[in-house]
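Lab meeting tomorrow. Look over both lines:
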Amino acid sequence: MTQSFTPGRYIGIDLGGTNMQIGLVDLDKAPGEAAEHAEVTTSRKLKTKADQGMEHVLGRLVGGVEDICTEIGIRPSDLSGLCVGAPSPVDPYRGILLHAVNLRWKNVALSSLLERRLGTRVFLDNDVNVALVGEAHFGAGKDADPLMGVWVGTGVGGALMLGGQLHYGKFFSAGEIGQTWLYPSGPPGLRTLEQVCSRTAIVNRLRAMILSSHDSKISELVGGDLDKIKSKTIGQAYAEGDPLTVEVADHAGEMLGTQIGSFQTLLSLQRVVLGGGLTEAMGQGWVDRVAARARKVAFPDSAKALEVFATMLEDDAGVLGAAMLAAQRLGDPRFESPEASLQSL
């Protein structure tokens, strides 16, 4: 990666439906040089509390930024810039969040809202886009082109980079692999990749089967409270060879690999990076299963050389990538500052 960026002090934000991670990143290379290394120097991880409404979430986000700035002795307006990765398709040029299902936000001028409150330049992108940028510069995606990211957690998100640049497409939906259909004739709620392969889908399937008298170590791990099944629970049961967990998780891995293999046929990728909370919890064995299925499906034979790597940066990917995007976009005329407004569209 050699794309020019503006050195300075940036904050990257990974905004999720459950948690938000806010981190300060110093990028001090000269313009035009490649940043080979970066780290999150100060961070905050907060509950999003989306159920309390948009104003409450924005208040928590702004408060987290202000807290970090106070700790290091600066004001938010002293920052070089800030970028938010949001769980939604976005219009990155106008800073508009289009439809965040987990947050229940639609057509929100998020960049403008935050610029007015923080007094610094704010950029916006999709959460998997910013994570993939982080991996491309500092992690498992370095020196790969074309590159795709697939993040498996509460949902399934995707991102695509061509020629070292994020590819959005005409309608800003490029890379959204989770919303592609696996089972067109399936019942409602069991048709898309996300509805079959996400952590949410796996938890729902495990819960239903356990309640239908299928034995599983999961029950023991959560003390009988099936509402407490998390990614780590699934990963532990999988590592210990629990038959039900292995069956359900491997099926999800096979379906995920099938869709990635189909994308490989379409896009002729060099590498796919797998990330997200479920991927991290499941470990390398599950990643290898996904990769094997993707290579089996890919056409022609030469496309089976697809590389599938697990995230290297894990939780820091989104924060580092968001900071790098902010640094790249300062001075780029395609990302002119939006008109300040406190109203969603």
In short: The first strand starts at residue 8 and ends at 15. The radius of gyration is 20 Å. The domain at 144-310 is CATH 3.30.420.40 (Nucleotidyltransferase; domain 5).
